[in-house]
Sequence to fold (269 residues):
Amino acid sequence: MENEKTKNDVLKEENLEQNSSQKEKKNRSKEKKEYKEKQEVKEKNPSLKNIILSIRNASYRYSDAEEDDYALKNVSFDFESGKLYAIRGRSGTGKTTLLSLISGLEKCTEGEILFDGKSLKEMNLDQYRNSDIGIVFQSYNLLPFMTAVENIILSMDANGLKIKNKKEKAIELMEKVGLKASYANRKVLRLSGGEQQRVAIARSLSYNPKMIIADEPTGNLDKQTETEILDIFKKLAHEENKCVIIVTHSQNVCDTVDKIYDLKKVQEK
Ligand SMILES: Nc1ncnc2c1ncn2[C@@H]1O[C@H](COP(=O)(O)OP(=O)(O)OP(=O)(O)O)[C@@H](O)[C@H]1O
Ligand SMILES: [Mg+2]
Fold:
């Protein structure tokens, strides 16, 4: 009798298992269908795309410039999460100026910039810079007499990050950008240009921003190192869904990115 019961139980269990795996399958195909439908809706409606940053008709004139001497005029670019972008243009076309507008260091003279649908004009810009965007400067802006890890921890502190083991996290970030943990305690002064650039990228990632902007991050590097650094940016965009924007003159960078935006001199437009 007991055996009979057990057999029944086993049958019941098998049935349940079958049902639940069928349910799982159904759920998965439902999820897939919903995802596909959402993607189709997004494709048909550009305004619903994954846009994280939208520059709308932005113009900028430095305060000491003549009345009609604009560094940037009527620039409109959209940037999506999960994509890698290049901003290209000859010297003086306003690339660095545009990055200072995007990073909230300067305000548009005309037009506006939206982050996640919200105008930068209405946002707390300190908070925006401290949590939403990571900036990689061409000159790295590292403190040369401090170690790689100290530079990264300094950025975590400046951004008010409350994590327990900052050193461990900093070393994790260094490894992520291809720097051995054994470099952690070496003074930045004693690192090569490419290595310093990696520390600068690791530092910009210390508070996990949604967007990373970099001003000529590979300008001083050989092609092989440039390609390695580009691979890091590509992974951040494609695998971690970050929006990465690189200002560049490099053809190698332009060949790698998902989309290129060209800036022209204001008088050439
Ligand atoms: N602080 C400033 N005050 C006044 N004009 C400025 C200032 N900074 C830049 N400009 C002017 O704004 C224009 C755009 O400069 P910007 O530095 O943005 O160019 P860029 O594209 O980054 O050039 P590069 O490739 O040489 O770095 C230039 O004509 C420049 O002279
Ligand atoms: Mg510049």
